[in-house]
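Lecture 7 notes. Example A: sequence first, then its structure tokens.
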Amino acid sequence: MPHSFRRGARLLLPVMCATLALAACGDQPVESLRQPAAAAPSHTLQAFKCVASRSAVSCSPESSLNGRGTVIGNQNTNIKLTSSNVSYDAGTEIFSFDVTVQNLLNESIGTPDGTTAATNGIRVFFNSGPTVTQGSGEVTVANADGVDAFTGSNQPFFRYSEILDKDEVSQPHTWQLTVPASATQFTFTLFVDTDVQYKLVINEVMANPANYNSNPDVTGEWFEVYNAGSLKVDMQNLVIADSAPAGRQPYHKIGTSLVVQPGAYVVLGRNTDTANNGGVPVDYAYGPTLALANSFDAVKVARVVGTDTLTLDRTQYASAATSAADGIARELKNPALDNSNMDGSNWASALVTAVYGPGGRGTPKAQNSTYTP
């Protein structure tokens, strides 16, 4: 199948979002935020504090969380919620407004694989509040789509059952809160929880290492993965495999943390010992569970979600002369290209100037020598 960044996997996207003021915020952004420090999971970096009045909402960073985890939820960077059609019915005490979700990430959200909608969709949780800050009385969520445990028990949420690619905006969803007339201002914080694809690309493959020892295939095979997304990805618990004449080999589960930063590379190989693997800087050793043939073979990265195996990326080759030349890595010319066929024109053999170790040609953990913008 053609290479597509719409293939992906489950990733929690916690985002703390805005406060709203009664009878305010018409057609204005609801600031996108992360979780407050008191309740933040380890993968959250930043807390924001929001102050709302009848005419404006102002949000600013409150504290750093010691640089833990992935930065997600920057205002107007990754996720944005926007309110419109704000109204208040004094008779029913219903405060009503429409909210849209916009995805500003490179990754698609609301999907585990870029094609199938996530079971839970995109859920916007109330983490704290609504809390009255001016006036008196109690504000409650009137028409939540459900309640669930996110950072606490029985937290109401609104659901958006959509797949949103980069810059796409959801359909508006009407939120209703019960607000007594005695309450003139209130605040609340929100988290967004959704499936987010992984934009991992198999970017370089060494199927037939140079003859630096008596059996280089046992120690020197490797492949490189590039993160073309906005978010860092920990590949721990993802699975990898190659093919065999009778079909795919058993999956190998990545058993330790293997973080790929956005725009960065990791190398997976048979052996991490550079003195014994031809000088390759291998970040993760999969041992003998993958054995790349010098003829037809394939490399696959996937994730198990429930009983399903979701392919994140896959490439294959059939020509030994093209994709398994002795000691020459095969390089993808640009990570945005269809990489499904290593024998094809989107791939090229590493240049003679791209040398690592004792004679191997390739660019492990670096931009490919044949990179074409």
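Example B, a different protein, same format:
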Amino acid sequence: MILGLLALFFLAGQDTLAPTLAGASYLQGTRVTVAFLPADSGKARSVLEALDAASVLPGLPPESPSGVHLILTPDEETFAQLAGGQAPDWGAAVALTTRSTILVPAFVSSRGGGWSDARVLRHEWAHIGLHQYLGGLRVPRWFSEGYAQWASGGWDWGEGWKLRLALARQEGGLESMAISWPRGEARARTAYLLSATTIEYLVVQSGPRALEVLFRRWKDVENFEEAFRGTFGVTTSQFEEDWRRYVRSQYGWLFVLSHSAVFWMVMSLVMLALVVVRKRVRLESMARLRAGEVPDEPSYWLEQDPPSDRFGPDAERSE
């Protein structure tokens, strides 16, 4: 099943009590409250402005999410403590979905693998929004992570390049991912990229509004499998097979190379070389043709008549 196939970026969401930050100050927005220490006040203001101005999440109503509590953690120890020790050391942030709480590092670290602050915020915001709208219904991890990635606007062909390289390094490609939930960074990031392609495939095949239909039906019937089948006309098992073919075709080497700057540079050099060779061949052919042509004024036409033999048989002899 696809649930076992897609081992994803770890998401904490099973807390019974919302975490608090000792000595925190607060900024209140329309849909989020930011908790921070005085040293992080500048970052707190930028986070609040970004989330208050956030665009509507795909497929969700404009007011979703709301009542979110975001904590800017001042150091690694505080981050790990508030996350309950559940976040891996490479995780960019944590969404505690059952408490509508987001934990974001305010300190400089290697977390996030180069993700921008805006992308991290949008990703976790999407997790909270989806959980709130569905009223706490169980959301498959592959779908939750794929949706958050898609909603964050972070999926592009550059991510596809990373995915193709990751799959190429693993024996068996996609099939080798059907293991357990990985805790290792490399395998988890690969599975995370895979999850994004599931939502990409759904949107490409059915259009962005399909997510809205799915969410509404899911909320009504309270069953993901039934809602999925009613929206897309296939079971998740059938969808997995179609999705596998999509990933192979969309992120195969031909697709990647055709979108690579290096590929086009090489192609430009090859085309230039072909033009030079062709021009050279044409010049040589023209030279051979000209060599075989009869001149407009052949040299033998220009030779003077040979002098007459004064003493030939027809010549008059003088006495």
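Note on Example B: Residues 1-15, 171-181, 254-259, 315-319 have pLDDT under 50 and may be disordered. Residues 59 and 215 are 7 Å apart (CA to CA).
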